[in-house]
Amino acid sequence: MAETIDVGTHAGDDHGHDHHHEETFWSKYVFSTDHKMIGMQYMFTGMFMALIGGFFAYAFRMQLAFPGMDVPFWGIVTPAEYNALITNHGAIMIFWVAMPVLIAAFGNFLIPLMIGCDDMVFPKLNRLSYQIFLLSAVVLLASFVVENGGFGGAWTSYPPLSAKHEYSLTPLGSSLWITAVALEFVAFLIGGINFVTTAMNSRAPGMKLYDIPMVVWMIVVASILFMASVGPLIAGAIMLFMDQNLGTHFFDPNAGGDPILWQHLFWFFGHPEVYVVLLPATGITAEVMCVFARKKLFAYRTVLYTTFGTGVLSFTVWAHHQFIAGIDPRMAHVFTITTLLISIPIAEMMFVYIATLYGGDIRLKTPMLWALAFIAEFLIGGVTGIFLGASGADIYFHDTYFVLAHFHYTFFPIAIIGVYAGVTFWYPKMFGKMMNDTLGKIHFWGTIIPFNCIFIPLFVLGAAGQHRRIHDFTQYPELAQYQDVRVFATVSLVIMLLFQFVFIYNFFMSLRKGKDAGPNPWNSTTLEWTTESPPGHGNWKELPTVYRGPYEYQVPGRDKDFWPQNEPN
Amino acid sequence: MIERYLEQVSTYAGDIDGLINLIAWFVGVWFLVAEFVFFYLIFKFRHREGHKGEYITGEEKHQKRFITIPHFLVLVCDIFIIIGAVRVWVDVKQTLPPADATVRIIGQQWAWSFVHPGPDGELDTADDIKTVESLNTEVGKVYHFQLESRDVLHDFSVPVFRLKQDAIPGRIISGWWKATKTGEWDIQCAEICGIGHGVMRARIKVQSAAEHASWMHENSPVASIASAN
Amino acid sequence: MNRTNATLVRHASRALGVAALLGLALAATQLSAPVDANAQDETAAAVAVDPERGEKLYALCAQCHGENGAGNPMALAPSIAGLPQWFVEGQLKKFKNGARGTHFDDIPGMRMRPMSLWLKQDSDVVAVAEFVANMEKAEPVAILEGGDPEAGKAKYLPCTACHGQNGQGNQALNAPPLAGMSDWYQLWALKAFKAGIRGTNPLDTTGALMRPMSMTLADEQQMLDVIAYIGTLSGE
């Protein structure tokens, strides 16, 4: 036990003077089994990949706005490179940014701290999960630099294009790409087991199921969704790899295979995947909103049941991606109905969040701005989804920029806004320092305003019939007239990307110069705020006991406006 | 909404646009109300000195009402949208009105090619007219198409018709349209098909009966052989 | 308005100001780019084009024709390294204007036509052609079997009029060199000429000359023989 007691004395950033431990650099930062360190590893890897994904977006948006130009820091974007850029922008942002940061980084960091235990139940499995993930990222990066370039068959990688090298023209790139994707799935499969087991078995004494903070519930449900849906796609990825390199014909219609099979395998995973990343982000939003509105979460149980409802329904909607893919047209009715039904739990969740604001005492600190922006922006993503879920309207909208804009109005709030809400909120706990709030707000407005300037115009382009994944629209007589709109979106993107440097600066400067945070800078009630910042190895000197639910703010008859979960009275 | 950007050139374009407008009204009202309430609450309950928040669990019936009533209203809207979507879908994708002519549309990396039936009105006869990058049709006729692919997935999309359908190697997929005015418009490929996908373009020409007949006469291989003799 | 809101508005307006400035700066840099491209266009014919530009643009060609230009039968791409500049330029222009790659059965041509359309300015076509012409000749892999060069020698006689004794080609007659051309591609091209897939488009005046010549080869065996004989030529 000596080790756990020690840790409090050198919380902070004095890595160099670590006499008390026998931990070396390698055992502390690279081969650590501590859930917090693994969470950090996921977070920093995810942020690094986000820079690459963002840079790709810059390169291909420049090509769209100024076709044929020599893009600064990239060069001429050939059609082959354009396809590789959009493919890997999508894959990176979903599989190597949203997944590792939202599920793995926050899941690892928060679950033990929020349920009051010292570590994950399977720490070595946890480490293995990160190592496989890191390997998958390396394989992916390698796929860009091999001969003939990176894979360019879109992140959905529909065969036969992705299955036959003579069609894709990137033999090494596509093999490495599908290998990387499969490895990434395996990594999260392993991680998911850990999250669910830990949350179910290691809760602090007194913490009942309805006392678990919402973000933990949502990460657990997301992990279950992921584990239940990814199996078919891992099998599919192996089949695709075999089609590419071993001469099998699973997806080759010329030899009795079926390209549509892949679409089912992919979307059976792909649609639950949307909710896999959505749920942690909504969970983070719930935590942040309760703290900064000084409010109990409105109807905790309703939120929980809508989460379960969303999870179950998400397995029944996948073929709405395939309305016009040549499936039996009668199937469309079934999937239209299920898709529109899933709008109900999601709408309900949004209503609950809006209702939580009622009667609050709202403080607009940076994390709260992000959380509120999540609701405001995600609503746009939600309502535009109805157009695509309704089969008749999807005939027109399928694969247009309307889909692309809708998708980004769901995924940007999830993967960017949700992540910033979480990082700015838990930063004091992660590093023991406060971030600069002014810089945080500059970054916030510098991201949110250009974000809307990028994607609102793209809705218009989609309505005007502009299709996705085309590298130069000026050659289509009916689309050439909208070139100004494309330039506007691209300029907005560049501005938004530049503002991310404000965040990076704030993040690293606050590590050195930020004010000391203390254990509970936001006056929050959940368990992670009851230990020092950053928590040492083992998290608490003495593990906490839980007496009440997670959101007891403004309880009548108490002096303080918050009542931590671990205070007896 | 869509008709402001793109003409309606097929008989069902108006139905699809109508459905889109219907959805726009339903979700638009919901969206505006939700955002209005949201921003109003942020303003109303902003932090002020000496002001305390309230303790509301949201678990009691009279509180939950604020969630359950909108919940059922959303369900009602969903039902209307589903009915609208199903009606349009059945009309466009599930029924084939009797054909006046049939064309074959073939996608390959990276061009659209077309087989027109020629003067005899039948496909797979000697007078078929084969073209690349341009499809000639007649206004006011019900056309069936047989959509094929020679290699990978493609997607035949004519935005002004509001028509879109994936082409799948190994399958022949049927569908229909009936054009309502003459002119020339874009055909796009809407499914990524390789490095030339972005340039896989074609034009559809909708001609009057007289124009189309003369085009057919000039281009049919059998007709030209006959006139040469 | 309380203090928090006032600071918010101040931050927001500051952010917007910065954003607008950056946008303007970006727009300013962009305005100059197309002007440069136009200037290049006018001088392209007179002055040698930027070899670096040709190399950059070749990145797309390399996808099918290979880094070394040796071609790739899997991608239906013939060898192109070292072909004369006038020929490459002419072919690219034929693809661009639709003289090639627009026939219903021209599967390889349909793959090439969109690629040529990517080269929007004439100066870019010249630059790529220049780069290809300066590439070191790459020996394409021979994949055809069953040709008899001895039998082909006689059949090659009519070809010499334009393509030369040693298959070296003749710019004056628009005849490309044949030595070093991918054998499978020669077979495909001969068949295409014969079947009218090539040389029938009214815009393809040079192809129209080749079409009757292809008729001198009665069947596939004769084509194989000629191609086998061409394989023995030096091209000098």
Layout of SSEs?
The complex is a heterotrimer of chains A (569), B (229) and C (236).
Chain A (H helix, E strand, L loop, with lengths): L1 H6 L17 H6 L4 H31 L4 E2 L3 E2 L2 H37 L7 H23 L19 H4 L2 H31 L12 H32 L13 H35 L6 H14 L17 H27 L8 H24 L1 H7 L3 H31 L5 H27 L19 H31 L56
Antiparallel strand pairs in A: 1-2
Helix pairs in contact in A: 3-4, 3-5, 3-16, 4-7, 4-8, 4-9, 4-14, 5-7, 7-8, 8-9, 8-10, 9-12, 9-14, 10-11, 11-12, 12-14, 12-15, 14-15, 15-16
Chain B lengths: L12 H32 L16 H34 L6 E8 L2 E6 L12 E4 L1 E5 L3 E8 L4 E5 L4 E5 L5 E6 L4 E7 L12 E6 L1 H11 L1 H8 L1
Parallel strand pairs in B: 1-5, 4-10
Antiparallel strand pairs in B: 1-2, 2-3, 5-8, 6-7, 6-9, 9-10
Chain C lengths: L2 H42 L6 H15 L19 H13 L9 H12 L3 H12 L15 H15 L19 H13 L9 H10 L5 H11 L6
Helix pairs in contact in C: 2-5, 3-4, 3-5, 6-9, 7-8, 7-9
Summary keywords:
heterotrimer; A: two-stranded antiparallel sheet; 16 helices; 2 strands; disordered N terminus; B: alpha+beta; five-stranded mixed beta sheet; 4 helices; about 25% strand
Structure description:
The complex is a heterotrimer of chains A (569), B (229) and C (236). Chain A is built from 16 helices and two strands. Chain A is mostly helical. With 229 residues, chain B is α+β, with helices and mostly antiparallel strands. Chain B contains four helices and ten strands; from the N terminus they run ααββββββββββαα. Chain B has helices spanning 13-44, 61-94, 209-219, 221-228, and strands at residues 101-108, 111-116, 129-132, 134-138, 142-149, 154-158, 163-167, 173-178, 183-189, 202-207. In chain B, strand 1 and strand 2 (111-116) form a beta hairpin. Chain C is mainly alpha-helical and 236 residues long. Chain C is 61% helix and 0% strand. Chain C contains nine helices and no strands. Chain C is globular. Chain C starts with a helix and ends in a 6-residue tail after the last helix. The relative contact order of chain C is 0.12. Chains A and B meet through helix 4, helix 9, helix 10, helix 11 and helix 12 of A and helix 1, helix 2, strand 7 and strand 9 of B.
Our measurement of the CA-to-CA distance between the termini of chain A, rounded to an integer number of angstroms, reads: 29 Å
How much helix is in the residues of chain A? 55-70%
Structural class of the helices, strands and pairings of chain C?
mainly alpha
Q: How much strand content do the residues of chain A show? A: under 5%
- Average pLDDT confidence of chain C is 81
Radius of gyration of chain A: 24 Å
